[in-house]
Specification:
Chain A: InterPro entries: ABC_BtuC-like (IPR037294), ABC_TroCD (IPR001626). Chain A: This is Metal ABC transporter permease. Chain A: It is found in: Cell membrane. The complex is a heterotrimer of chains A (394), B (369) and C (278). In chain A, 70% of the residues lie in helices and 2% in strands. A two-stranded antiparallel sheet of chain A has the order 1-2. Chain C is of the alpha/beta class. Helices cover 33% and strands 22% of the residues of chain C. In chain C, helix 5 crosses helix 6. Classes of the chains: A mainly alpha (394), B mainly alpha (369), C alpha/beta (278).
């Protein structure tokens, strides 16, 4: 696999692939933010599977392999799929999960029937339709990229223009209606955006895995920020990075399908985000939990020393660390905590392994007024950032 | 019908019935999409197992793939429990990753082993009759038939044995837990059965379309009955119907058998959706029309009850003003009044409506309900 | 119709309203007329249709029959004059946004399509946060708020709308004592400005203290009017039915002990006087 940079800059195919993958990541990242926040992550799954029969029917009806025609079929079928999901949950007692699974698998099955049917037609060379199953970045043409670009522009325009409307729609739709916003219309636009974003990615990622591109970048982005604006930007960035990396690697490596490669890259991004994102990440949480437990432990130790001091009526009397071991901590742990408390000025070492609480320590354990609240404030860098970047002053 | 045709239909029917049993519980427990995740992710287990055993029917492969399915359910649960992503997103994150690894493995090493993406994804029922079980020189039938049959038997036996536990845990998880039936055991038991069934089915219908056999017949049955036992039987029956009609659709179009089965499963759900005797669209429409008149008469009675003793409520009681007061269509109001008169709920005196005792009783009853 | 227009225009006028979910009626032929400048509590047992009535007034539900008038006109034409404080649990508090941002949502209606909130809207939002004592938390992510603080954010969002009628769904539910006092003060300020407040309320004990008017509702209207006239044992018994532990309750109402504030645990859970019997 020769991945030399000059090649990348010059090679027409690679440029097209990179551009296409970028567009795919951009649109699905942006739109995915709204889908994930609305808890409709899997609607994308149903819509992308539903697109398959649309592509096949578009081909059967027009005998054209033109991307724009096939994708138009995909848009129509994706829309029909989401309408049916909606109708099933509204008019029957079948729940959303079943409705999604039903539409997803039945549409996909019907798509396969059509695909195999086309395959056996004597005149039709259907080669090229199955690229929509798992995606084939290398098959992207400049014309395709232009079609994708149009879809992306539409999605971005909608998000920019209807920024506050979508925010309110996702956060509190009832309130939006009370304010007089056209909630139905907004929902239709949002659904159209999801369909568009999926269709933009179909050729590169394929119908089976496209839903991952809607869910994963947004789920990763959510871990890094508490602001919608930043989340949309980050999600788009993750989508672009995953799309480009995956598409380039797969088109430079033989027998490496594009869709799965992109999905693996984006899954890696999610994993890193879940583990290491500041504030929310699991590692971060674990460290915080550890620190908190240490603090509780130190607090308990200090209380014990305070009780001993009160018992003896003096702050001068030192106590051996062995006395303090009551709560099942190891000797080392106790000494460690005592040293920590000493460096904070709450405890002093009277002599070798003799410890006493200081006046500061007493004040901390037995405050005259209500204790200071340590759990509050401090340390939400995102929260102290001046408002306005996300909101856009007009 | 030739012998292979009969065998294919038998296998299809058995697999469909085997899927429908756990499917009914998945639909009722709102876990339909976990079956989607399991049947996708299981691909990884099958591929790895196949590389190790080179035999799609090896017990080791089936065990490995079943464990992968369970692992998927576990990962979704763990991810959900971190609180960092919601359940829908958790499902959407886990299975594409596992599935992708499986697809990449197949594509990379497809040359060296006899396994290709299409077979795993779409299954190849048409070839099933060629894979025979031969005992002591006797050909006793296709392997698929035995694999499917064993899984169907296991599923049926488990459902029969744990019927009461499953029923309780599905409709009242709190009570089930209080009575000592661990929800976790039941959850992962069901996940295990789902995985095993999906492994058995993928050979015939492929990884994606097993979802159709899990969900569509069960969802259709859910619209046709309120009784769990009947729903289980109906699910299995409708699954078999989808399998057989799907086979013949594929035969007619010379197209994918698995795809046709999924399509027919969808058609069957569509039929149930429209024509189910009580819950179907048509029945609902008819009932709404009937109830509209009944409802309107009650409303009229309640309206009169509310205003009959109110001073200054004279316009509320005038036949002429009624349609304006209630924001009804004029003809509609006239029709409702004459229906109510006919039933002896109201009487008309100098253009003023009055409740009869019967009407008053109806109004009071309606308000208490 | 004619005679109705001669009276002083009601802030909220509900006429013969029937609302049904599918085929199950939630409100039967309800009338309600609320004069401007009144604090009205809607009380009734669980499932009495309190939230339904509120949503129907807001135009969120389409009635089977009857109509709602806001200052004599349909809701759709009076959107600017009503504001809404939904139940706290109705939204996802993990949504990635800040306190100030949520409060500014109150200005989206008048901004219209596409235009973004600017400095003016920001100032108004901050002023509203001041009113509920939350200004210093304006940059906070909303998931870091306590129940009481969440309620105050919703109130601030409603205040920003600068409406004439405020519809609140259980504003006191699950809030701390401090917030409860703050809300009561706010309600009184609103009344002093001549605003109308209609609130679904669960705690019968505090009705006489917090509100001037009360509507007793149980699928149909049992009674409605000034608290002193209609908030009595007979009407309460009609509303809550035989399950109502009347004698003990009546005493409490008369004493109307303001000091005891029992935060409700949940909407459906009992814990409220009388209503819990269901």
């Amino acid at each position: 696999m020769a991945l030399a940079l000059p090649d990348l800059a010059l090679d027409y195919t690679l440029r097209t692939v990179a551009l296409g993958a970028m567009l795919l990541g951009l649109s699905s990242g942006v739109v995915g933010t709204y889908a994930v926040l609305r808890r409709e992550s899997l609607l994308g799954d149903a819509m992308s599977h539903a697109a398959l029969p649309g592509i096949a029917l578009a081909f059967l009806l027009t005998r054209s392999k033109e991307t724009a025609v096939l994708l138009a079929g995909a848009v129509a079928a994706g829309w029909l799929g989401s309408l049916l999901v909606n109708a099933i949950t509204r008019t029957t007692r079948v729940k959303l999960d079943s409705a999604l699974g039903l539409i997803l698998s039945v549409f996909f099955g019907f798509g396969l029937v059509l695909l195999t049917f086309i395959q056996k037609q004597p005149d039709a060379s259907q080669a090229g339709l199955d690229r929509f199953l798992f995606g084939q970045a290398a098959s992207l043409l400049r014309r395709d990229v232009i079609v994708m670009g149009a879809g992306v522009v539409a999605v971005l325009l909608a998000v920019l223009l209807l920024w506050k409307e979508f925010k309110l729609l996702v956060f509190d739709p009832d309130f939006a209606r009370v304010l007089g916003l056209r909630v139905r219309l907004l929902e239709v636009i949002l659904t159209s955006m999801i369909v568009l974003a999926i269709v933009v990615g179909l050729q590169t990622v394929g119908v089976v895995l496209m839903s991952a591109m809607v869910v994963a970048p947004a789920a990763a982005a959510r871990q890094w920020t508490d602001r919608l604006g930043l989340m949309v930007l980050l999600s788009a960035l993750f989508g672009v990075v995953a799309g480009m990396t995956g598409a380039l690697v797969s088109s430079l490596t033989p027998r490496l399908p594009t869709g799965p490669t992109i999905v693996l890259v984006v899954s890696g991004l999610v994993l890193v985000s879940l583990l290491f994102a500041p504030n929310r990440g699991l590692v971060w949480n674990w460290a915080r939990e550890r620190a908190r437990r240490g603090q509780v432990r130190a607090e308990g130790m200090l209380r014990q020393l305070a009780a001993l001091a009160e018992h003896h009526g003096s702050l001068e009397h030192g106590h051996p660390s062995a006395v303090l071991r009551a709560s099942g901590w190891s000797a080392d742990q106790v000494v460690q905590v005592l040293h920590d408390l000493e460096s904070a000025g709450y405890v002093r070492q009277v002599s070798a392994d003799r410890w006493a609480i200081t006046a500061t320590g007493m004040a901390r354990v037995r405050p005259a007024t209500e204790g200071d609240d340590l759990s509050d404030g401090a340390g939400h860098p995102a929260a102290s950032r001046p408002e306005g970047t996300g909101e856009g002053q007009s | 019908m030739t012998a292979p045709q009969i065998e294919i239909q038998l296998i299809a029917a058995i697999v469909a019935a085997a899927c429908a049993l756990p499917g009914a519980f998945l639909v009722l427990r709102r876990m339909a999409l976990i079956s989607d995740a399991i049947s996708h992710a299981m691909l990884l287990g099958i591929v790895v197992g196949f590389f190790l055993t080179e035999d799609l029917n090896s017990p080791l492969l089936i065990l490995g793939a079943t464990l992968t399915g369970l692992l998927t359910a576990l990962l979704v649960e763990l991810l959900n429990r971190t609180g960092l992503v919601r359940e829908d997103a958790a499902i959407g994150l886990v299975f594409p990753a596992l599935f992708s690894i499986g697809v990449i493995l197949i594509s990379r090493y497809a040359g060296s082993v006899h396994l290709d993406t299409d077979v795993v994804l779409l299954g190849e029922l048409a070839f099933a009759p060629f894979d025979r079980v031969v005992v002591a020189g006797w050909d006793i039938g296709p392997k698929g038939l035995y694999a499917g049959g064993i899984i169907l038997l296991i599923n049926a036996a488990l459902v029969a044995l744990f019927y009461k536990e499953l029923k309780l845990a599905t409709f009242d998880p709190g009570l089930a837990a209080a009575l000592g039936f661990s929800p976790a055991v039941i959850h992962y038991g069901l996940m295990g059965v789902t995985s095993l069934t999906a492994v058995g089915a993928f050979d015939s219908v492929g990884a994606i379309l097993t979802v159709a056999l899990f969900i569509a017949p069960a969802a259709a049955a859910y619209l046709l009955t309120d009784d769990l036992a009947r729903m289980l039987l109906l699910s299995a029956g409708l699954g078999v119907a989808a399998a057989l009609s799907g086979y013949w659709l594929a035969f007619l179009l010379d197209a994918s058998i698995a795809g046709s089965m999924a399509t027919m499963a969808g058609v069957i759900f569509g039929l149930a959706w429209c024509f189910a005797p009580e819950r179907g669209l048509l029945a609902g429409q008819r009932r709404r029309v009937r109830q509209r008149w009944e409802f309107a008469q009650r409303m009229l009675a309640i309206h009169l009850l509310n205003h009959e003793r109110q001073p200054g409520a004279e316009p509320e009681l005038q036949v002429e003003h009624l349609w304006q007061e209630l924001r009804w269509d004029r003809e509609f109001a006239t029709r409702v009044v004459s229906l109510a008169e006919g039933r002896g709920l109201v009487t008309r005196q100098n253009g003023r409506l009055e409740l009869t005792d019967r009407g008053r009783l109806l109004a009071q009853e309606s308000l208490l309900a | 119709m004619g005679d109705r227009q001669n009276r002083t225009v009601s802030a909220v006028e509900v006429q013969d309203l029937t609302v049904a979910y599918r085929e199950q009626p939630a409100l039967w032929d309800v009338d309600l007329s609320v004069p401007p400048g009144v604090l009205l509590a809607i009380v009734g047992p669980n499932g009495a249709g309190k939230t339904t009535l509120l949503k129907a007034i807001l135009g969120l539900l389409r009635p089977v029959a009857g109509q709602v008038l806001i200052f004599g006109q349909p809701v759709e034409q009076q959107r600017r004059r009503i504001s809404y404080v939904p139940q706290r649990g109705s939204v996802d508090w993990d949504f990635p946004t800040s306190v100030l941002d949520v409060v500014m949502m109150g200005t989206y209606g008048e901004l219209g399509w596409i235009r973004r909130p600017g400095r003016r809207e920001r100032e108004r939002a901050l002023a509203a946060l001041d009113q509920v004592g939350m200004r210093e938390l304006s940059d906070r992510q909303i998931s870091q708020l306590s129940g009481g603080q969440q309620q105050r954010v919703f109130l601030a969002r409603a205040l920003v709308q600068d409406a004439d009628i405020y519809l609140m769904d259980e504003p006191f539910q699950g809030v701390d004592a401090l917030t409860e006092r703050a809300i009561v003060t706010l309600l009184q300020e609103l009344r002093a400005q001549g605003k109308t407040v209609i609130a679904v309320h669960h705690d019968l004990q505090t009705v006489p203290e917090y509100f001037d008017w009360v509507m007793l509702l149980n699928v149909r209207r049992i009674a409605c009017g000034p608290v002193s006239e209609v908030f009595n044992e007979q009407n309460l018994r009609l509303t809550y039915g035989g399950r109502f532990a009347m004698a003990a309750f009546a005493r409490e109402v008369e004493e109307a002990a303001p000091a005891i504030v029992t935060p409700d645990r949940s909407r459906s859970g009992g814990g409220n006087h009388g209503a819990g019997a269901a």
